[in-house]
Write a structure and sequence with these properties.
The protein is of the alpha/beta class. Helix content is 36%, strand content 21%. Strands 1-7-5-6-4-2-3 form a seven-stranded mixed sheet, with helices on one face. The protein is globular and about 55 Å long. It starts with a helix and ends with a helix.
Amino acid sequence: MKPELAVAANRRALRRVASLGFVQFFLCLAIGISRVAGDPVPEVSVIPKPSRMEMGRGRFVLGRNTVLTVVPGTEATGKQLASLLRRSTGLPLPLRRSPAAGEAGRADSIQVTLSGDAAALGEEGYQLEVLPDRVVIRAASGAGAFYGCMTLRQLFPPALESSALQPGVEWSVPVVRIEDKPRFPWRGVLLDPARQFIGKQGVLRC
């Protein structure tokens, strides 16, 4: 190939590479902008999947002044939740009984109440509302309050499940509104041992 033809070919190749680079640059820029625009609303996974979940913006952060309030009928569940949270966070999280109308608007609190609509939630349903300054769990029974607390448990960082103190973790949950209740009035389980017999104690462990 003649030198002048080689130079021309090289110039065309460089122009193609340069144009491709600009296309990739603007494509990456567009993708980045779209992701930034959607980042403020996080996605969470909860098991079982709630019947209704609406994500918001912001987070509720546990602190040394956070309290956990309960009402008659949710004391045992409140104690269990407080014990779980204290174990890995090291926060005091004092447990307080909420008066009929005193604690309803308290900031920096986790409130476990029985103010839920019994007709809408049933015996085991709950509403979990996380706001930037408080968490409110509403149920119509102690069972519903328990399930609401177990859903709140899943929203915290995985380090919450540690049996030891976990320093350096921001103990926060995303702003969200969750409502759930069982789809069916019964639950069942199928044990299929296939090739071996399972005794009573083995069944109980399952």
